[in-house]
Structures are given as structure tokens and as C-alpha cells.
Amino acid sequence: MESRPPAGPDLGRRRVTRALVGGAVLTAGGASAWYGLAGRAKAAGDPQGVGPVTLATGRDTTRYLRGLLADWNEEHPDQPAELVELPEAADEVHAQLAGELSGGGSRFDVLNLDVVWTAEFAARRWTVPLEESDFALERFLPPVVRTGRFGGRLYAVPFVANAALLYYRSDVLAAAGEQPPTTWAELARQARTLAPAHGLSGYAGQLSPYEGLAVNALEAIRSAGGDLLAGDGSVVVDSPQARAGLEFLAGGVRDGWIPAEVLGYREEESREAFGRGGLLFLRNWPYVYHAVGAAGSPVAGRFGVVPLPGPHGPGSGVLGGSGLAVSRFSRRQRTARALIAYLTSRRAQYRVLTDGGLPPVWADLYADPDLTARFPYLPVLRTAILAAGARPGVPQYQQLSLAFSETAFEVVSGRRSAEAALPRLAADLRAIVG
């Protein structure tokens, strides 16, 4: 578990200030100046080039991409695809991609981008717009398609979908004659009363100050009817709804049904806590289902999943996943586009799920009887994805997330009230997004 020094009252502001020092803030109209593209000629790629290509991605921990590329290579021996694995951590992947592309490097042809990087890479002119008619977007889950667009153009074809689920101990709720919670009040009551009676902690999400907390906090804020940015890009985070969302999480920590150690949890720490039988509820991604349901797990056969609850009913999730983009500097862009079309085809998407255990983007796979028998969470996940929204699609997302996660941590850890923290956050976000 990564540890950080205690956050003082001005730590979030200091970090935001450091992120802004040394250059102008990135805006949609000033992206090229901020990233040094103005006045610097970069070697353009070849939109019609064909031949061997590379797929740059974070570490393929389940090795599913190797099989997919082996099939492509068998069918396209004159245009083989090579897998280039970068580190597993997202920030390291981002750094290596940025380092290569900022210099106009052509080592990477197809880029597997986290959905929150689409706008940034497009604004930096590191990726090229794609023709939507070249891909089967009409067969995808509609919300995931929006994650691939920037400025009205498609820059990344959705490859993996994702939305969080609420895991619950079905045996504990059944013994109490209760159903899984559909509202925050029910979640809090069950976590506060049922969990201690069975020697469990109540609830865990990912509340360490990093991107995971930004997502958890944004889910709470949107579930309460608030948001960070409005549709026109204006900052709207200083609102009663946003305060209610953050105070719900802070209240859980303060009242004890969210244990204090959750303030240091990321995805894996929270998964391990639920998997060893220590939690009644867990907010996490679909990959957890098979990890905690495997033979020999203390909770195998004793848990279920439902959509995230909200104040008065189902809550609002935040989309995760990735999309495939073509590097502007690729000399074989025609082959790169063809590889993306193959990797996002129904045949390949079936294997993304069955071989990789990752949520596909094709809508009909979520109702396939064979798949739902093997992956029982698919219908719930489909509901969660359809109700989820994307994170702010702005080129400055990395800076925005840093400011937001630091402020959210101050609130959920009880170091500052939401009422005191959100006006300052709103000012920081206005400085970041212009």
C-alpha cells in the first residue's frame, strides 16, 4: 500500500500550484502553446501507410492481448502487430507515452489509452481523428462511445468498458432477512448495524488521495445531483449537491461504518479486505468478481453485486475503461486503423471478456446466455455502465484530478468541511480549465 505524508490544510493548494507553475494552463484553444508544439515542426505520419505496427499498452497481466494479436498476425502476415508492454501503473504508462510522442517518436502506432487521456492526447495533437463509419460504434454501449470523442471528432475507439459495482455479503443480508441497499440511508444503516453483529467492517471504497478517490468522490457528487463541470465546461463544484456527496463519505468515516484504514485503500487493498471476509460492502470494479469468487476464497458463493446506491435510489457511476487511438506520428496508419477495427470487432470483444476478464464494449455480449452463465455480473454491469457518466473530457484532466482528489481527501478525512473546501476547489479548477 502506498503511503503519503499527512495532508496539511494547504497541501492540496500547494500541489495544484506546483502543477500550474512553469507554463500556461492548458485550454482547448491554447493546447499547442502549452505543450511546446507551436513553432515546432513534427514529422507527420503516413495516413495511408501499411506494414508492421506496434500496439502500446499497459502491462497485459492476463496475457489476453497476445492471443488476439497472434490471430491478427496469422491473418495478416505482411502487416504483423507487435505488442509493446509498458508498466502496469497508469501514471507510468502515461509518462512513457507522453515522452515518446512529445518528441514526435514513431515507435508506437496504436495506443491503448485510458479514457481520461483521450482529450489530452487529442489536444496535444498526438493522435489523429478517426472516421466513425470505419468502426461498429452503433453496436457499442452508447456511453462508452462518448469517451472516445473530443471536439466533436472520434479520436479513440472504445476497447474496454468499465463501471463500478457494489459488492455485498449475500449470506449476511440473507441471515438478517434484508435486501441489498438501493439508497445511501439503507447502505449506512446496514453497514452500521449488520456488519458489527457479524464481526465485519461496514464499507470500503478507494479513499486514498489518488485518481481512485477522484472517481469515488465524483460518483457521490453526481449521485447527489452535482458535478465538477457543467456541459459548457464551467466550474459548478461549489454547490449544495456536491457538498452533500462529499459529506456522505466524510460522515461514514466520522461515524465509523467506513473504517479509518480505508483512507489508505486503493483498488487492491479494498479488494483484499473484502476477499478475506472483513467487509460487508465494497465499491470496486468488475475485475474483483472473479478474484474474490475463486475456489478457496473465504467469500466464494457468499457475495453478490448491485448497482451503486444514491440518496434516493440508484446512484451515478463513473465510466472507466480504455480506447484505441492512432498515433499522429505512425507511418503505417492504415494498418493501425485496421488493427483497431479488428480489436473492437465482436469476435475480439468476446475474447476481451473470456480471455482477459475485462468488460467488452459490444452491447449484445451483456445478454449472451453463455456469457451471463460464466459471468453472472454482466446484466448488473450493463445497467451500471448505461447509468454512468464520463469524467470531465478536458485536456487538463490530470491537473483537475490532482486538485479534486486532494480536496476530497481533506473532506473525507475530516480535516476540512465540504463547505469550507469547495469554494477553494472551485477557484483552483477555474485556474486549471480556464
Describe this protein's structure.
There is one protein chain. It is built from 18 helices and eleven strands. It is an alpha/beta fold and 434 residues long. It folds into two domains: 42-162 and 319-380, 3-Layer(aba) Sandwich (D-Maltodextrin-Binding Protein, domain 2), CATH 3.40.190; 165-318 and 396-433, D-Maltodextrin-Binding Protein, domain 2. The strands form three sheets. Strands 2-1-3-11-6 form a five-stranded mixed sheet, with helices on both faces. β4 (149-150) and β5 (153-154) form a beta hairpin.
Quick description:
This protein is α/β, with parallel strands linked by helices and 434 residues long.
SSE layout and pairing:
Blueprint: H1 11-20, H2 31-34, E1 53-57, H3 64-75, E2 81-85, H4 90-102, E3 110-114, H5 118-123, H6 142-146, E4 149-150, E5 153-154, E6 157-162, E7 165-169, H7 170-175, H8 184-197, E8 201-204, H9 211-223, H10 240-255, H11 267-275, E9 279-284, H12 288-293, E10 303-306, E11 320-326, H13 333-343, H14 346-354, H15 369-374, H16 378-387, H17 397-412, H18 418-433
Parallel strand pairs: 1-2, 1-3, 8-9
Antiparallel strand pairs: 3-11, 4-5, 6-11, 7-9, 7-10
